[in-house]
Amino acid sequence: MVNAGDMNGSGNLMDFLDEPFPDVGTYEDFHTIDWLREKSRDTDRHRKITSKSKESIWEFIKSLLDAWSGWVVMLLIGLLAGTLAGVIDLAVDWMTDLKEGVCLSAFWYSHEQCCWTSNETTFDDRDKCPQWQKWSELLVSQSEGASAYILNYFLYIMWALCFAFLAVSLVRVFAPYACGSGIPEIKTILSGFIIRGYLGKWTLLIKTVTLVLVVSSGLSLGKEGPLVHVACCCGNFFSSLFSKYSKNEGKRREVLSAAAAAGVSVAFGAPIGGVLFSLEEVSYYFPLKTLWRSFFAALVAAFTLRSINPFGNSRLVLFYVEYHTPWYMAELFPFILLGVFGGLWGTLFIRCNIAWCRRRKTTRLGKYPVLEVIVITAITAVIAYPNPYTRRSTSELISELFNDCGALESSQLCDYINDPNMTRPVDDIPDRPAGPGVYTAMWQLALALVFKIVITIFTFGMKIPSGLFIPSMAVGAMAGRMVGIGVEQLAYHHHDWIIFRNWCRPGADCVTPGLYAMVGAAACLGGVTRMTVSLVVIMFELTGGLEYIVPLMAAAVTSKWVADAFGKEGIYEAHIHLNGYPFLDVKDEFTHRTLATDVMRPRRGEAPLSVLTQDSMTVEDVETLIKETDYNGFPVVVSKDSERLIGFAQRRELILAIKNARQRQDGVVSNSIVYFTEDPPELPPNSPHPLKLRRILNLSPFTVTDHTPMETVVDIFRKLGLRQCLVTRSGRLLGIITKKDVLRHMAQMANQDPESIMFN
């Protein structure tokens, strides 16, 4: 090394940061990324690869591999997400049936698979075969009677408790982040927030296993929301294999957006709906390139699931249905009523669930997550078993509610009184009077509806994987089926009324109760999540019926209007705010007439802003400033007197730079001068080696003037994804506004607690 005097004279000072060192450009846990910087870094990387590709064949091949890496990642995500979804579906099917009995010929067969393979199954008793035995038949050789019923009841509860206890224990011990739906956190992560471990390998493994356990336990939850989390974990894993994504948090989020689309694709068998869900509901930044890649990932995921064929019906979902009757204009009125019901249910659910979750966070209840899961599971199992509509899995319930009553249906819901003289094609059965089975089913459905509404409020948010799509759809499907049967019977008995006269003649197949169930399901799901476009597309992909888009649209829009009248937040946004995540929602409007000077720090009476000077602070001064404050970065000014802004330095990069300089550069000591200029400052001959940190300085930090309206500032933060913005007047630094300051100001303006925003 040359001495300091020689270096000062030559100006040829070594900048050890000319070569990047580990962890530079990374972020700490629970902090927000800088979208502009990530975009700039990716542009530089791409420019470098393009210029190098002209140098040799090998560099050209490397540039091609880099260009194709995105599509390779999408292919891998689709394959793994589809495979995991298929395995989860098969395992849930088997374990749900395990609560009631076991297949003697092969214990790994579900009830349906067991009776498929039997040669002794009859059409009328297709669910009964000697190979499948209920626990009472196996243990005490009795299938009927009080003792058999009590034994089956007891074992049903014990299996449910066993599954739930195992699930909550695995989550608590191995992967605390595997609980919940995952969509609120995915939305926050996609907006630029860092939650380390949330998309890790352990979370992926534990969430997949526990998802099977909790759905099989019979709790009022679904696997569809958590499948989005599972798919995003797959996306995070594969993106870590490619430096293009692993070293750039902005690019990684493009992969995660596509992974979310693949998750919905396999959850509902709706690839296009998945892409629209990612665009409408979870993604913050969604360029056109991500749209194409999301489409490809969703396609591969759906194709993989179709290859596994978990339901044995060559469909991607359990509740695929086809209707043969058109809908009529007069039916729009009950469809809109179902939309109103969906909006009211959504509002009720969000308010009650958030109140319960807040109570869980602020009282001793939150200290006993295992006990809470066990109690809710016990209550669910005890109440669910006597009612055939709550005993079965929620997906099977929705499937039955969606089904049209054909000539071959054996469900209670299809117990109509047939006309012995009827000679019609199988698919076109006329409306008939309801039999005793239908009336029994109506009572059971009404009780099941009340039970589902109440128990779902307490179930969603527990420390286990829990989706909300399926319970919401079940509530709407039950309400819709009852309305459908009511309209059908009204049309049958009063076909001479003016509203029925034009389209419902005697002997015609006028009303399809299954369609009402489908519309009700869409309305309730829309009321809870506030989805519209993606919801309608998911529902028509589920059912394969393009003809029913208008009823679905009417119900979805009505439910959103009604729910929005009571509050703009959907369930996921409400949970984001409950957890205090720094999520700046694109849908939120800011209409207050405040200025940047009202929000910036420091405010009047506060200590002055902590800043770095360009060439007059020592290493010890910088380290002391870092130690005494917890800010994420520091503005760099010419001097403390002039306060002319030069740039902005991130806290993490300052720490890493000084640490690396001490290790790799001789002569850097505590009283070495730190400078951010191109040329070193004039120093006395025997002064210690100075430290140049210009490389880590952001020379173009985003600035606004003190009189910029906050409406504009909020828009800038939203559209550019800023972490912070500096406030100046005529080039002189006045203060700083962070994303947290913006969110707290918005909460204050909306008469909410600004301290609820907890993270940076």
UniProtKB/TrEMBL annotation:
> Key word Transcription present in the record?
no
> Residue ranges of the CBS domain?
600-664, 697-755
Kindly give the Pfam families that the UniProt entry links to this protein.
CBS, Voltage_CLC
* The keyword Ribonucleoprotein is assigned to this record: no
Record SUPFAM superfamilies: CBS-domain pair (SSF54631), Clc chloride channel (SSF81340)
Q: Return one GO MF term.
A: voltage-gated chloride channel activity
What's the protein here called? Chloride channel protein
Chain's gene name: Clcn4
